[in-house]
Specification:
Helix content is 46%, strand content 18%. A hairpin with a 2-residue loop joins β4 and β5. 36% of the residues are buried. The chain has 13 helices and ten strands. It is globular and about 55 Å long. The C terminus is likely disordered. The protein is an alpha/beta fold. The strands form two sheets. A seven-stranded mixed β-sheet has the order 6-2-1-7-8-10-9. It has a three-stranded antiparallel β-sheet with strand order 3-5-4. The N and C termini lie far apart (53 Å).
Length: 278
């Protein structure tokens, strides 16, 4: 069992490094998520792991602990309404704006093990005849190296593919490989993955026409949410869109984006923000 001091140490470092909020009522999650880290790092208990963290300058170990505390839960076609809105309404607008002179760029921030980015790729692959020669890039980022490695592998268990995927899509876009299902190359070509921290600048990624950051901000402290939204705005093109998770809002950073009428959890960058960035 971890004592209150150990929980406080871990929680403060998670907040500092990644803006992760750990409510007092959910401190049990710290123990649960540190257990596999402790085992794989060779410690007998979570308490031994924390003692090693306190006495060591091993930043790699701290990074792994903080990454384990982030919520990476995701599944295919989770809350599909914003995905459908993107395909039916936003993508045609972006296609007209871009006029095929530049690629349409999509960012899945906090992508976890990749299912959201792959869901978008499946939708685009299914509509490729309509898209024609339209150039589209999808980049998925996450703070966790292990989550990114899972996403890059494009290999999922039977349980994972059953969450959100229809039988038709499973057979159409995946191939069985041992105990897992692996996405076909026709889907893989749409997406690449990189590590990224929403609290840190990411200019090297360039700017994006639409950013999906769903079910990520809700796990952050209020200050971290505001900071992350500013980092996201820096990555957003002048006419960029932002899609948040169900129940998430831009509270505290309303000058950056405005809500889209008739589209739940979808926001457009404000003109004032765009002018300041120009």
């Amino acid at each position: 069992m971890l004592d209150a001091a150990a929980i406080k140490t871990i929680s403060e470092e998670a907040r500092r490094r990644a803006g992760i909020a750990i409510p007092q009522a959910q401190t049990y999650l710290v123990e649960a998520r540190l257990a596999p880290v402790a085992r794989s790092e060779g410690y007998d208990s979570q308490a031994d792991l924390v003692r090693a963290l306190e006495s060591s300058k091993d930043d790699r170990l701290w990074r792994r602990v903080v990454e384990s505390l982030a919520d990476h839960e995701t599944w295919f076609f989770r809350d599909p309404a914003p995905l459908d809105h993107f395909m039916a309404d936003i993508l045609p607008v972006l296609a007209r704006v871009k006029a095929r002179k530049a690629p349409i760029r999509i960012l899945c921030a906090g992508c976890g093990t990749g299912q959201e980015a792959w869901s978008l790729a499946i939708l685009l692959e299914e509509q490729k005849a309509r898209l024609g020669a339209m150039d589209i890039e999808i980049i998925g980022t996450d703070i966790s190296r292990r989550a990114i490695e899972r996403a890059q592998s494009a290999a999922y268990s039977q349980f994972e593919v059953q969450r959100g995927l229809s039988i038709h899509r499973l057979i159409e876009h995946f191939e069985p490989h041992g105990q897992q299902w692996v996405l076909k190359d026709s889907i893989k070509r749409w997406v690449r993955f990189e590590r990224g921290n929403l609290l840190k600048p990411a200019e090297a990624l360039g700017t994006f026409d639409i950013i999906f950051c769903r079910n990520v901000l809700s796990g952050m402290t209020p200050d971290a949410r505001r900071h992350a939204l500013r980092m996201i705005a820096d990555l957003s093109g002048p006419a960029g869109y932002l899609v948040l998770g169900q129940g998430e809002t831009i509270a505290g950073a309303g000058e950056l984006y405005r809500a889209m009428s008739g589209a739940r959890s979808v926001y457009a960058r404000t003109m004032e923000t765009a002018r300041q960035a120009a």
